Amino acid sequence: MTDALCFALDGVLVHRTRSDADILRDVFAAHDIEPTGELLVTARDAFRQAFESLEPEPYRQSMGAAVEATGSGADPDDLVATLREQTYDGTAVPEAARGSLAGLAEDSAIAVITNGPREWQVGKLDHHGLREHVDAVVASYDAGAHVPDTAPFDRLRERVAADEYVMVGDADAVAGARAAGFVPIHYERDSAEPDLWATIEALLHTGGCNKLK
Asked: What pTM did the predictor assign?
């Protein structure tokens, strides 16, 4: 049987080490913009509105709103570049993840299903050297809907042929996966559940991916 083992990106493969607020403060300060609490709210609200509506370039819309609100002469594209750098640097990959992905890839197709613009999300994989282990990436902007909608899962089926599809992710990912006919595995980094990667490492030595189900 051919399996496709799918992972959420944020919170599963890539963990955040800094808050959005801290990152935004550093971005604005780097461009000589006072990072007030009000400005952080403006930037977040602009991003959220654009993101939820699947409008193009939500990060640029966020930085553009901040520049407009402050009357700064800064270039929003320059702020976006700094935001991307700060965001990627503010993430980490669990040590066990790389070895686990490499081992799982021997027997299963590895995929990522993630909410966000494709370029931005794929950039996280590239930044951490994970892209080589991943056969396919489906971003919500590709599919025209965010998880937990089933559209990203349906798009993954179109891109990767398998007899069975497994999805590892948070509550939203599990809900979407179940509705799409995937085998869901619920994982929350801060929950009391056993460590995902330790579990997968053990499974790699006792039969592989099929024992996850």
From this structure: 0.89
